[in-house]
Amino acid sequence: MELVFYTNPQSRGRMVRWMLEEVGAPYRTESIAYGPPMKGPDYCAVNPMGKVPALKHGETVVTETAAIIAYLADAFPAAGLAPAVGDPARGAYFRWLFFAAGPIEAAVLNKTIGAVVPPERKGMAGYGSFELVIEVMETAVTPGPYLLGERFSAADVYFGSEIGFGLRFGWLETRPAFEAYLARLMARPAWGRAMALDDALAAAG
Hints:
The chain is an alpha+beta fold. The chain folds into two domains: 3-80 and 191-203, Glutaredoxin (3-Layer(aba) Sandwich), CATH 3.40.30.10; 89-188, Glutathione S-transferase Yfyf (Class Pi), Chain A, domain 2 (Up-down Bundle). The chain is 55% helix and 8% strand. It has ten helices and four strands; from the N terminus they run E-H-E-H-H-E-E-H-H-H-H-H-H-H. A four-stranded mixed sheet has the order 2-1-3-4, with helices on one face. Strand 3 (54-57) and strand 4 (60-63) form a beta hairpin. Helix 1 crosses helix 10. The radius of gyration is 17 Å and the shape is globular.
């Protein structure tokens, strides 16, 4: 079945690109420009939200970055990017994958737009506070080398990308544990290939 990857190099599609390179299956890239092309009827037939990334695998369409990453891990088990059903490590795998997609994303968005959760409403926010999220992130990556110990997984793709974006754009303070974890991820050949492909796509306009 053909894999079609819909993306823009200035989006979370970079996470999915890295995941695709880790999987190693052939895929076709459809670059979608922001504005009318992304909101137009052709692309909205793929993703009615009019946003990237999205993935089509044969007749199956998957949207939302964490869902795409999880789908690819299960669709290509030979890549070894997700613990199998029944493996106790699968709980931690899902925990950190969706911690990145949930609390981290929510905390970063609120910080970026200047939204402050009142102390008495922290329980309603789900993630508590930005500071708590950062502390949990550091705790998660400190044992190393990966979130599941010696085993690299798709959870590291999302979690590690969040740390990379955070350090690059300044919403995440530099900490030795973050820098060491990110350095290990950046040493992966798939990460290098993915970044080169997206950088070239961005340069091409």
